[in-house]
Write a structure and sequence with these properties.
The structure is a homodimer.
Chain A (H helix, E strand, L loop, with lengths): L22 H19 L5 H8 L3 H7 L3 H13 L7 H5 L6 H16 L2 H12 L3 H25 L8 H19 L10 H14 L6
Chain A binds a DNA duplex through helix 3.
DNA sequence: AATCTTATTGAGCAAATGATCTATAATTCT
DNA sequence: AGAATTATAGATCATTTGCTCAATAAGATT
């Protein structure tokens, strides 16, 4: 017996006629669709194709976004927003936790966030087209994440060598490259990148004599 | 006194009228211009803009290439061709040379080849758009370069750990990422990447106990 | 049930764009 | 120098594409 409310509400209604949605909701639906669409075909994808995929008229898009560029801007914001969790700087510098654990926790969490089709492709596309948000994101990443990582490794280093910022970018790049191979090049990749990440982090720490438990 | 022939022949003639070139030469000129153009604006750049940059009519382009896609294909071939020097597999496996020297020689040579505006951007653009040449290139890279590198490091390894193919891709990705930051993200980068490369290679070799002179 | 509000549609415009075709003039050959 | 060849230009076509606007109907209100 169905006592938990209308299950049929979860069934997608294939009603071919027009479907009237609250503007807020429709706007979000368009953005979500646009993210998936532009990730797949690039920002030169045609608004008519996007509309067709949404099951909606092309002219409707321009009711919610004055221009295509404005829609793309909304896509940027939706994708870039909250990708850098605000608590990472604190967690990365919490010296009550072994540095290796902090780094592994960060990169495993971060990689599940960014090793996603839509993020990877929109990130690279927007980088290619010189989007301001892209440069801002990388600057934030450097300042809020990588620079603290540098200092933590410096602090924990037991060897005479100490890492440079370029070394940190190298560590980071090697890891990000997994996502690039997966979603940009569409090359065969390990299903679970965490072992490659672990090994990369361990090699890095080893080079600077950081204790690894 | 000018006795060494007509110097003025090296002066670029700003003749505004039509300039008739041998087809072979014009074709090459168009390809070269297209490489620079598409690298800058992406493959959705307009043929009219390309023609204007070349100082030539748009219709002329279609005299040399039946379609825009055919032109792009020619751009791919021009850019991808001979990027992987055929002697690297041999040089990388020449055990009369210390492994570290071989790796450093390869990556310094390879990085000067690929850390270039046009290559980097066309490589990434073509990867995004799923070009077949891109996947073929990466497959070749893996088979002809990275797999030998793996075996050489395995052979030279003095630690109990031995690298995996994923580790090699990680080494490679960390290095390539320099070029991505430079030309895709247009982020501040070291003028000379060779010190970062050297340090990355040394960290890698250290992790597997390879002698480093 | 009738009315009102407005989200959505469908037709269509103006500019952009890939591609075509004929006229023109640069270069070569005789 | 004149004729022949053909690389190039200029005009133009057929679609495509971002965008507009008046008409329509879905859902809320009374």
């Amino acid at each position: 017996m169905d006592i938990n409310g209308p299950v049929e509400s979860t069934v997608i209604e294939e009603r071919p006629g027009r479907r009237r949605l609250p503007p807020q909701e429709r706007r979000q639906q368009i953005i979500d669709g646009a993210v998936a669409f532009f990730a797949e075909v690039g920002f030169d994808g045609k608004t008519r194709d996007l509309a067709k995929r949404l099951g909606v008229t092309q002219s409707l898009l321009f009711n919610y976004f004055a221009t295509k560029d404005e829609l793309i801007e909304a896509v940027y914001e939706h994708v870039y927003l909250n990708r850098l969790a605000p608590d990472w700087p604190d967690r990365l510098t919490d010296r009550s936790v072994p540095l290796r654990d902090r780094l592994l926790a960060f990169y495993k969490e971060y990689s599940t966030l960014i090793f996603q089709y839509e993020w990877m492709r929109i990130f690279i596309s927007s980088g290619l087209s010189g989007a301001e948000l892209n440069r801002r994101y990388l600057k934030h990443l450097g300042e809020l994440i990588l620079k603290p990582v540098l200092h933590e490794i410096e602090f924990a280093a037991r060897s005479d060598e100490v890492p440079t910022m370029e070394d940190i970018w190298n560590l980071h790049g090697g890891i990000v490259y997994i996502g690039i191979r997966q979603h940009i090049y569409r090359t065969p990749c390990p299903d679970d990148p965490s072992v490659a990440i672990t090994r990369a982090v361990d090699r890095f720490l080893l080079a600077f004599g950081v204790e690894q438990g």
